[in-house]
């Protein structure tokens, strides 16, 4: 009897800042990954700003492009979490860059003719001290869905502080109860859907 490999969850953190600068987006992503680990998933985290990701909609932009290696990590995962701050009411430019590079695979298919990313589950984490968490998650949801990811119920967790104030998520003494509960719900539904899609993959499209 062979055991089923654990789910694989990858978080791509889309803060504008390179490591080791602190990041509220990374903190929330780490909390979600801890909850996914409790659901039996292996986890890894990438801070996109630490890598060279040129603009474009190709899988490989040539010499110096770090995206091909990151893309391979996406292809190995069952769950992709995009974590972003809110800037001017929108996802960060880094998050948009990641979606644009993922867009290279929008027309790619597997051996059964399914979208290349089909069977992978998408989720979103958003932080900010301005309005816009629902708008930001809607933007990322649409991009992930177009590319082929499947979204579970409650596929976003977020924290938005008081508008025009300087408190960040990482400044809080403890995780707000509602945020913790929302992150736990995201981890539960995301892991459940990923297991379902492993057991019952999408059918091949009609010929």
TrEMBL record:
<dbReference type="InterPro" id="IPR005025">
    <property type="entry name" value="FMN_Rdtase-like_dom"/>
</dbReference>
<protein>
    <submittedName>
        <fullName>Flavodoxin family protein</fullName>
    </submittedName>
</protein>
<dbReference type="Pfam" id="PF03358">
    <property type="entry name" value="FMN_red"/>
</dbReference>
<feature type="domain" description="NADPH-dependent FMN reductase-like">
    <location>
        <begin position="10"/>
        <end position="154"/>
    </location>
</feature>
<dbReference type="InterPro" id="IPR029039">
    <property type="entry name" value="Flavoprotein-like_sf"/>
</dbReference>
